[in-house]
Amino acid sequence: MAMMQTWLQILILCLSIILTAGEGIQHENTSFSFIFNHFNATTTIKYVADASLQSNAIRLTNHSDRLVGRAFYDKAIPMKRNGSVISFSTSFIFAMVPQRKSGGGDGVCFIMTPTPLLNGGVASQYLGLVNMSSDGKEYNHLFAVEFDTMESIGMQEKDSNHVGIDLNGVKSLLAESAGYWEQNRFTPIKLKSGHNIRAWIDYDGASKQLEISIAAIGEARPQKALVSKKDLDLNGIMQEYMYVGFSASTGSSPLVEDHYILAWSFTTGNNKASDIDILHLPSFYVKNRKFYKSTKFIYITIICSMAFILGLILSAFYWVKRMDYIEFYEKWELQYWPQRFNYRKLNLATKGFRDDNLLGYGGFGRVYRGTLPSGDEIAVKCITKDFTQGMQEFMAEISSLGRLQHRNLVHLRGWGRKNTRLFIVYDYMFNGSLERNLFSPELNLTWAQRYRILTDVAAGILYLHEEWEKCVVHRDIKSSNVLLDHDLNGRVGDFGLARLYDHSEKPQTTHLVGTLGYIAPELIHSGKASPSTDVFRFGALMLEVACGRKPVDAQGVILVQWVWDLYADERLLEAVDQRLGDDYDKIKVEIVLILGLMCSNPDPNERLSMRKVLQVLCGEASLPTSLRVPSAFELSRIDIADLNSFTATPLNLSE
Questions:
Q1: Same domain flag for 387 and 502
Q2: Contact 224, 214 (CB under 8 A)
Q3: I want to staple 67 with a disulfide (CB 3.0 to 4.6 A). Which of 61, 84, 586, 617 is the partner?
């Protein structure tokens, strides 16, 4: 009897083991899950670019300029069964912490991607996901939910504090202002407050519905989702195996912030992501310094100090006035952005506008280098024109230009005024102007650097002409107005002559301005600056960069006409800058020279648009099959079909 009981117990134990093993196998085939209530050195996380482990949390970026950080679960996860995307659910806690005097930017994304590598992903508005050339491309296979703290122009975003769905790029398929619903009442959440925020993302593979919710830490999950998208078929996005994780980026100072992931759970299949233990999470919130004073203390201080303060104010006013630093603001000035800089601050930053801080000359005046008390380096343009009249109209236009935001434009920080003199404050560009780098005996740009700079400038001009809210005609595009940052990226600067128009508005007649050699022929007769006249200037600039010659040399030879003559004689490559030797890409050089000729065609109807120019430079479009010499020169044709093979490989602008 005892032996039968023993055999019965053994049989039951075996059955239990078999059933348990069967359940484990079923779970493995139908779902995958993990949970991290905190992070440490042993956590299975893959860190990419600027991401790192800090204080038991993932820090994707700190508050330095233009950083990109990514962090992933270290193994790819199966996301398809029988050719269809399976359900998945994730919950995580994040924090975005701006520094004092920082505007905050740019945001965090939950991402699913076939590879953890950056693949050209850049910072700022691209959130480390893509770059200008790869944005929106189907080959990305990228699914992302963005928690964005910057409103980028042209990205179809709700505002500067929103949650959105991104597919293969950063233009949101659907976005809503950040917050949560409780009993039909919406409570907004400031994403960049520095406080811990919890997010839930659920996708039903059967119904193809995606739901996204957020709430303040400690709050229950909202019953109504913040963002809900029906019929979202991810089959074309998802591959068999995908990496899941996070990406974040910062912009240019002061648009920076720290980005943290504090805890994370994830599962596939029909289950919801496991609940996270929130009791022991770190906090990166930085409290504002506050002074607590009683009413009695305030009254006593005011009464005892009134005489001293009044005397101090009168004395300070007297001495400041003697130093000619007193400034008075008119009512109309208060409505304009960017900020107004105090003249005394600019005077100290430039050490009294000394000649050894002189960077050069621009339209209307001199440009000086300066350093603010924060350590930021600036360029201050002193406009010598006497603005006795028209000050308000000029500042209205400058304030509009101050809202331009593009990585290939020099950022306008603000302005200052002393009586009728104006000062425009820009970011300082470490490597100076393209002209200096092109013609200085001790400097010599490589062909690859020159080509990259031309592509950068073309992207900046396209933004001015077509992609901003207004059409901006620069009117003074030339090598001295193209500035190079620390990484030799090209940026268009000096908007002192720029004019703004509505996209439907026709340009008006203005005074003829510009530099000899860059001026389109029709400007001499009509005086009407337009995007086409900017294209002519850019064409002259392209020839200048490729040939290493001034638009008009000391002997009075006009570069554009000289290159046209060489083209007509089928000797185009003789125009190439001899300092390059043989170290250049012949096809790309020919493309730049021919594009330069097309853009600087005397007939404005024959010129290309900046969009077409940029597409050709990036390898996304082909050149026309032939180019006719203008009637002013001997007619000739050169077959350039062979150059179109260059367009088979688009240029990666992030390299």
A1: no
A2: no
A3: 61
Which pTM does this prediction carry?
Answer: 0.49
Each residue's pLDDT tens digit, 102-126: 778 889 999 999 999 988 899 988 9
* CATH code, domain carrying 364: 3.30.200.20
Are residues 385 and 511 both part of a single domain?
A: no
Q: Is residue 592 included in any domain, yes or no? A: yes
C-alpha separations of 404 from 145, 398, 499 in Å: 26, 10, 13
Higher pLDDT, 618 or 300: 618
pLDDT at 497 over 80: no
Taking a C-beta distance cutoff of 8 angstroms, is the pair 395, 337 a contact? no
Q: Is 355 a catalytic residue?
A: no
From CA 56, how far away is CA 41, in angstroms rounded? 9
Same domain, 468 and 411: no
Per the CB < 8 A criterion, the answer to whether 416 and 423 are in contact is: yes
Q: Given a cut of 70, is residue 325 above it in pLDDT?
A: no
Inside any domain, residue 197: no
Closest to 92 in 3D by CA, of 50, 54, 129, 37: 37
Three-state secondary structure string covering 119-150: CCCCCHHHCCCCCCCCCCCHHHCCEEEEEECC
Whether residues 400 and 440 share a domain: the answer is no
Can you give the residue range of the structural domain that contains 91?
A: 31-177+234-268
3-class secondary structure, 467: helix
Same domain, 394 and 489: no
Q: For residue 592, what is the enclosing H or E element?
A: helix 586-599
The token duo for 634 is 């001997």
Q: For residue 13, what pLDDT band results from cuts at 50, 70 and 90?
A: very low
Mean pLDDT of the chain: 83
Which residues lie closer than 8 Å to 437 by C-beta, 6 or more apart? 431, 443, 445, 484, 488
User: In DSSP terms, which residues pair with 418 in a beta bridge?
Assistant: 421
* pLDDT band at residue 315 using 50, 70 and 90 as cut-offs: confident
Q: How many domains does the chain have?
A: 3
Inter-residue contact 444 to 369 (CB < 8 Å): no
Q: Where are the beta strands (DSSP E) in 351-393?
A: 358-362, 365-371, 377-383
Closest to 58 in 3D by CA, of 94, 90, 34, 105: 94
